[in-house]
Each structure stands twice: as structure tokens, then as C-alpha cells.
Design a protein that fits this description.
The complex is a heterodimer of chains A (358) and B (166). Chain A is 62% helix and 11% strand. The longest helix of chain A has 47 residues. Chain A is built from 9 helices and 8 strands. In chain B, helix 2 runs antiparallel to helix 3. The chains are: A mainly alpha (358), B mainly alpha (166).
């Protein structure tokens, strides 16, 4: 009992730190209209950046200081261009590489001239040339870090099994989750015979999404799963795995639905075909939207603390932010579960054996 | 939607795809396969242990039933042996009794026979003796009679009285 209480206290403590660290960052952003500032901060937080900045503050002399480290920028613009993001000085200056000039505009790299001019069209979009950006951004760096963490964690866990078949240390916590994914997600949806082929993907995707979602709730301020590019990549893997491992029965159900009259078969085929694309598409949007919405709402409520500026409103929003943080912890695991569950469901439909009951 | 497309970063997509597929492949080789294999092996081990325990239990029950049967048989055998022994004992006693009776009868018979023969010989002796005495008496009587008739008579009388009272 004591143990549980102390664990809860620790969780609480970390959550508070999370809330405070968001808060602290906002507090130091100069003066001006606080509402627009919060809005901008949230938007900025949701975007990917080219350096890993933990926080920034303004010194008494009015100088902007950043705490963090630069990351490599990799561009494809008539040849590979690699340079450190410190050259951008957080978007404040133009980077010159082999006679070409690049600048940051809304966290995106544009080709520019020595003065760093950005031409905007009537929709306020830049018309400058956009080189293909393969930079190791904050998100890429985080993905790599999470991958490394997972590899170390699970390969160490695997090694433990060589000496004893009883899980020890981290394995005690992780093994039930692995078994849950196997026994309650993979086996019932895919089937006893074929589930093994999909286990590596299902396990990896579950832990990857979960860990990276949890990381998004830490004060590090990384948000990976609220990037549509990330969720698209994950959904695409699910789609390709489904498509390339599908059996005759699956395609039969798409192009020539058994048990319905021929005209219906012709109508159903394009609908079913569209369905195969909509399924992973929904995976992509669901994960993206849930995490983005969670972050926006949480940060808005934290922002409210600074808008109210009185003890009642601020403490209320603090309580609300705290409750929401707890909810987000749940959402982090839930979204990982849903993604894994639905992927397993799609794999299951792809390898389902023929039944005569319809 | 436009914002989404605008936000889409091909670089992030590329890296996510590469890193994630790499991660899946690496973890499959170094983590998932060994972990799942170990877990499966352990589960099989547990199942085997349970099965063998069940089997042992069944064997135990069989053994117990066998024991019970053996015990029953042994008990019956003991019972039979006891009964036999009792029978033998009874028969022996009976035989002994019969034999003893016979022996006794024989002894009695012999004794009776002996008594009879003794009696006969005693009678014969008595007869001889009486005959002798009679002769003696007759002799004396004859002598006395020869001397004194009265005296001889008295003598005969006393002598007879004497002899019969003897």
C-alpha cells in the first residue's frame, strides 16, 4: 500500500513538473498580447524544429537565449547539402552553404538570397524554392532516440531469458504487456496459425507509439505522433503489410463479393477497394488528431493560468490541466492500443480463411 | 486539410519510415523472437509439468487402487489361512481325543480282562483251598469221631465256624 502511494506521489510530482515547465517557458516569452503569444507558442510547440531546444529565455539585456543543442540539416538541392542548424541561429539568420543561402520560415527551410528575403503570395505563403529537407529534426532525433531506447530495453530483456525463463527487472513489467498483445490482440484477430508473422510489427508499433506519446507528455516538449508524416508512415506500413500478405479469399471479398447478386458485385468492388485505403487512412488521422487535440487542449488550459492571473482562475486551470494530464496519460496508451488492435484486425481480414457461412 | 498538407514533411516521413522499419527488423531479430520463443518454451514447460502432474496423480490413484486390492487379497488369504489353521487344530484335537478315548477304552478293557482272570484264579485257588480244608476237616472229623462222638461233633462245629468267619 505504501509503495502504491509513493508511486502515485512520484507520478503526481512529474506531472506537476510537466505543467510547470510548459508554464515556465511561456512566462519568459517577452511582453505583448499574452493570448496571441500563447497561441503562437502552442502552434510553435506542435511544429517540428531543426534544433533540439528545451527552453528559451530573454536576458535582462533583451537577448534571446536558447537552452538546447543544434541538429544536422540535410538538404537535397542540386546535390546533398549538410550543415549544422546552429547556422540558422534559431531562424534569426541566413545560412550560407557553398554559395547557396537558406533561411527558416515557420520552421521550414527555404532557399533565399544573402539578405534572406522571403516572397509571400496573397495567401501569405512563401513562393521561394523549397529544397527537399531530409534534416535530422527534433522529431527525427526523438524517433531515433526512442528506437535506440526500445532496442536497448528489449534486447536486454531478451538476453535475460537466456539465463532464466522467469522475467526479471524490466521484463516483469513488459512481459505482461507483450503477452497481452499476443493473447488479446494478435491471436483473436489474426488467428492461432498466422499471428506469429505479424507479432514483430504489432509489438514494435505498440511500444513505439506508447513510448513516443508518453515522451510527448514530458517537459522535453517533443511531439512526434502529432505529425501527419509520422502517422502516415505507420499507417502505410500497416497498409502494405495487409496488402502484400493478403490471401485469395481477401481479394475475392474485395473484387467479387461472394453471396450477392452480380450487379451488386460490380457496385461493391470499388467501394471495397476504397475501403482498403480508408482503413489505414483512418488509422493515420485518428492517431494524429487525438494526440494533436490533446496537446492543444492541455496547453491551452495551461495557458489559461496566465490569462486569468488570479488565484481562483489559475488554480482552477491548474487542477483542470492536472486532470487532463492524467487523461492524456491514458490516451497515450489507448491510442497505441487502438492502432495495434486495428492493425491486427486488418491483418486478420487479410489472412482469414474461406468460410461458407455468408 | 490544406494546413495538413502544408505541414507534411517529406523528410520526417522518410526518416520515420526508414527508422521504424529498421527498428522492426532489429527488434524482430534481437528482441521479439527470443522473448516470444522463451515465453512459449516456458508455457510449454508449464503445460508439460501440469500434464505430468496429472499423469502422476492418475498413476497414484491406480497404485492406490492396486494397493487396496492387494491388501484385500492379503486379508482374504490371511482369513483363509487362519480358518485352515483353526480347522487343523480342531481336527487334531478331535483326533487326539478319539485316540485317547480308544486308548483308555483299551486300557480299561485290559484292566477288566486282568481283573477277570485274577478273579478266576483267585476263585480257583479258593476252591482248592476250600477243598483242602474240607479234606482236613473231614480227616479231623473222622479222627474225632473215631474217639469221641460228641467231641468230634463239637470240633466240627467250631472248626466250621472258624473257617466261615475267616
Amino acid at each position: 500500500m505504501q509503495n502504491i502511494i509513493s508511486r502515485k506521489t512520484i507520478c503526481l510530482f512529474f506531472l506537476m513538473i510537466t505543467a510547470f515547465s510548459f508554464a515556465k517557458e511561456e512566462k519568459h516569452e517577452g511582453e505583448g498580447d499574452i493570448k496571441t503569444e500563447i497561441k503562437e507558442y502552442i502552434n510553435h510547440h506542435l511544429l517540428d524544429t531543426h534544433d533540439f531546444s528545451l527552453t528559451s529565455y530573454t536576458t535582462d539585456a533583451g537577448e534571446h537565449k536558447y537552452v538546447g543543442f543544434p541538429l544536422p540539416v540535410i538538404l537535397w538541392d542540386n546535390g546533398l547539402k549538410v550543415f549544422s542548424s546552429s547556422k540558422f541561429h534559431h531562424g534569426e539568420s541566413v545560412a550560407e552553404v557553398n554559395g547557396d543561402y537558406y533561411t527558416l520560415f515557420h520552421n521550414k527551410v527555404y532557399k533565399t538570397d544573402a539578405a534572406g528575403t522571403i516572397d509571400l503570395d496573397e495567401h501569405h505563403h512563401p513562393t521561394n524554392v523549397k529544397p527537399i529537407d531530409f534534416s535530422i529534426t527534433k522529431n527525427v532525433f526523438t524517433i531515433f532516440l526512442v528506437g535506440l531506447l526500445m532496442f536497448v530495453m528489449f534486447s536486454r530483456m531478451a538476453k535475460r531469458y537466456k539465463t532464466s525463463s522467469i522475467p526479471k527487472g524490466m521484463g516483469r513489467f513488459l512481459e505482461p504487456i507483450i503477452l497481452y498483445i499476443r493473447d488479446d490482440i494478435a491471436v483473436p484477430n489474426i488467428g492461432e496459425k498466422k499471428y506469429k508473422r505479424y507479432m514483430p510489427y504489432l509489438l514494435t508499433v505498440f511500444f513505439f507509439i506508447w513510448i513516443i506519446n508518453l515522451l510527448g507528455l514530458t517537459p522535453l516538449g517533443v511531439n512526434v505522433t502529432n505529425n501527419i508524416a509520422v502517422t502516415l508512415a505507420l499507417a502505410l506500413i500497416t497498409y502494405f503489410l495487409t496488402t502484400f500478405t493478403a490471401n485469395k479469399n481477401y481479394w475475392g471479398h474485395i473484387f467479387w463479393m461472394p453471396g450477392v447478386p452480380t450487379p451488386m458485385k460490380i457496385i461493391l468492388a470499388p467501394i471495397e477497394l476504397l475501403g482498403t485505403i480508408i482503413k489505414p487512412f483512418s488509422l493515420m488521422i485518428r492517431l494524429y488528431a487525438n494526440i494533436t487535440a490533446g496537446h492543444i487542449v492541455l496547453m491551452s488550459i495551461i495557458g489559461l493560468m496566465f490569462i486569468f492571473k488570479n488565484w481562483l482562475g489559475s488554480s482552477l486551470s491548474f487542477g483542470l490541466a492536472f486532470a487532463l494530464s492524467l487523461l492524456e496519460l491514458l490516451v497515450a496508451a489507448l491510442q497505441a492500443y487502438i492502432f495495434t488492435m486495428l492493425s491486427a484486425l486488418y491483418f486478420g481480414s487479410a489472412v482469414e480463411e474461406h468460410h461458407d457461412d455468408h | 486539410m490544406e494546413k495538413l498538407i502544408n505541414e507534411f514533411s517529406i523528410g520526417l516521413f522518410f526518416w520515420q519510415l526508414v527508422l521504424f522499419i529498421g527498428l522492426v527488423l532489429l527488434l524482430r531479430k534481437f528482441a521479439w523472437k527470443p522473448i516470444l520463443d522463451a515465453v512459449e518454451k516456458r508455457e510449454d514447460g508449464i503445460q508439460d509439468a501440469l500434464d505430468s502432474a496429472e499423469k502422476a496423480k492418475l498413476e497414484m490413484t491406480n497404485l492406490q487402487a492396486d494397493n487396496e486390492k492387494l491388501l484385500k487379497e492379503a486379508r482374504a488369504e490371511r482369513e483363509a489361512m487362519l480358518k485352515e489353521a483353526r480347522d487343523i487344530k480342531n481336527k487334531t484335537i478331535e483326533d487326539a481325543k478319539g485316540e485317547a478315548q480308544e486308548q483308555a477304552n483299551k486300557i480299561i478293557e485290559q484292566a477288566q480282562a486282568a481283573i477277570e482272570s485274577e478273579k478266576k484264579s483267585a476263585m480257583a485257588e479258593l476252591k482248592n483251598h476250600v477243598a483242602g480244608l474240607s479234606l482236613e476237616i473231614a480227616e479231623k472229623v473222622v479222627r474225632t469221631e473215631l474217639s469221641n462222638k460228641d467231641k468230634q461233633l463239637a470240633l466240627v462245629e467250631t472248626m466250621l465256624a472258624e473257617k466261615t468267619s475267616k
